[in-house]
């Protein structure tokens, strides 16, 4: 599948009085057209800031410091090649970025109330989003909005469009936000914990809805969650983040059946048995051993070393581990594999 998004060595820092928080600290990954990529990690690991950087909605004192975010615009059907747009070079408030944001890349958040305006009906907000990105009349935009509301399973869509957010349930608000996000047929949907605030039943419905819509519309999804059960259900590839960095990247199968990084293994241990009934929602990562160090005081060497049971003294607490490829596209940032690699390629002589 063709490339859609390439993030390379992205650094997004927050400049606070107390010091600099390296919220995203050299993150690189790619998303292909139609692919679903999960991003997991505990709160504060930089998942949301990575997403907000792609959308260029990082608020001061946060700032993209360096790196590249290349968006491969899906080529028009007239045979012209698709452009590659360097998002970090665009003015966040300028028209080109505003056209990408909400048009080609859109986002749904955990709590729709923070992104839906309380003083406008949900329908008007979807209509406004449609009219910002497409040359259609207001009547046509309303027709499209009702069409999207039907698609996302809103009951009585022609009536629901005229409701205010507070008149809808949490699940219905999340459906409204998904309708708004998908109304312009984006090639990438970023979903930041879209079901975390919902009850189990509603969560299952929303996840099913997202899978159905993806099958129908073919967009790629960057799915941010701290719920590994959701990752197992929703994604093909997974990125594990810890303290602003990617510590492991793998296919969903390798992540669950052949995890490499000690942090990934810890995350997996913290979830109830696969397939157990609680997996859907009770799979929170909060319960794992130790706590994330304070963001101003990133430990020297491997940032995970104070919590790691495999820590190699004199190595892990001194030297930053390199990113190591362990085959099958799986990448891990850990000394255990870095030091194993040269040994692995030395030909065996003992048995000869
Ligand atoms: Fe643990 Fe060392 Fe690997 Fe870090 S580099 S995860 S401390 S073994
Ligand atoms: Mg977050």
TrEMBL record:
Q: State the PROSITE patterns in the record.
A: ABC_TRANSPORTER_1, ABC_TRANSPORTER_2
Per its record, how is this protein called by name?
A: Oligopeptide/dipeptide ABC transporter, ATPase subunit
Membrane-spanning parts: none
- State one molecular function term (GO): ATP binding
Q: Give the record's keywords alphabetically.
A: ATP-binding, Cell inner membrane, Cell membrane, Membrane, Nucleotide-binding, Translocase, Transport
GO cellular component labels: plasma membrane
Q: Which family does it belong to?
A: Belongs to the ABC transporter superfamily.
The record's section on Gene3D superfamilies has: P-loop containing nucleotide triphosphate hydrolases
Matching entries from SUPFAM superfamilies are given as:
P-loop containing nucleoside triphosphate hydrolases (SSF52540)
Q: What is its main location?
A: membrane
Q: Known InterPro entries for this protein?
A: AAA+_ATPase (IPR003593), ABC_Ni/Peptide_Import (IPR050388), ABC_transporter-like_ATP-bd (IPR003439), ABC_transporter-like_CS (IPR017871), Oligopep_ABC_C (IPR013563), P-loop_NTPase (IPR027417)
Query: Which compartment or compartments is the protein found in?
Result: Cell membrane
Q: ABC transporter domain location, by residue? A: 5-268
Per the record, the domain of life is: Bacteria
Single biological process term from Gene Ontology = peptide transport
> What is the recorded membrane topology of this protein?
Peripheral membrane protein
